Amino acid sequence: MSLKINELCVNCDVCEPVCPNKAISMGPDIYVIDPALCTECVGHHDEPQCVVVCPVECIDPDPEHPETNEQLLAKLARLQGGAP
Questions:
Q1: Predicted local distance difference test score (pLDDT) of residue 32
Q2: Are 64 and 49 in contact (CB under 8 A)?
Q3: DSSP code of 11?
Q4: Whether the Cβ atoms of residue 17 and residue 49 lie closer than 8 Å to each other
Q5: Which of 41, 52, 62, 70 has a C-alpha 20 to 30 A away from that of 5?
Q6: Quick one: how far is CA 79 from the chain centroid?
Q7: pTM above 0.85?
Q8: What confidence score (pLDDT) does residue 8 get?
């Protein structure tokens, strides 16, 4: 499932540079995660790097975008130009 940054975000800027898929960007008020790009770091790391570095623990699973590990790996392959 994609991740989502909640309203506790303090815009500390540490999550954006660690995202291997460039899924994190500054939104109108706080950082946001693009669910089309977020793979929860599956295929890159053992755990989502944004969650690891977040000092206020404001990144949660996004219930509006449920995905299995297999679906996240398929998304990563598409993002990298591989087979779906």
A1: 98
A2: no
A3: -
A4: no
A5: 70
A6: 13
A7: yes
A8: 98
Task: Report the Cα 64 to chain-centroid distance in Å.
Answer: 14
Rg (CA), the chain: 12
Task: Using alpha carbons, select from 30, 40, 41 the residue that is nearest to residue 65.
Answer: 40
- The three-point CA angle 26-77-15 to 5° equals 25
Q: Which residues contact 29 (CB under 8 A, 6 or more apart)?
A: none
Question: What is residue 38's DSSP assignment?
Answer: -
pLDDT at residue 83, as a whole number = 59
Listed as ranges, residues in the chain with pLDDT below 70 are 83-84
Distance from C-alpha of 57 to C-alpha of 74, rounded to nearest angstrom: 27
Angle at 35 between CA 32 and CA 18, to 5 degrees: 60
Domains of the chain: 3-79 (3.30.70.20)
Q: pLDDT per residue over 71-83, tens digit each?
A: 999 999 999 997 5
Beta bridge partners of 60: 4
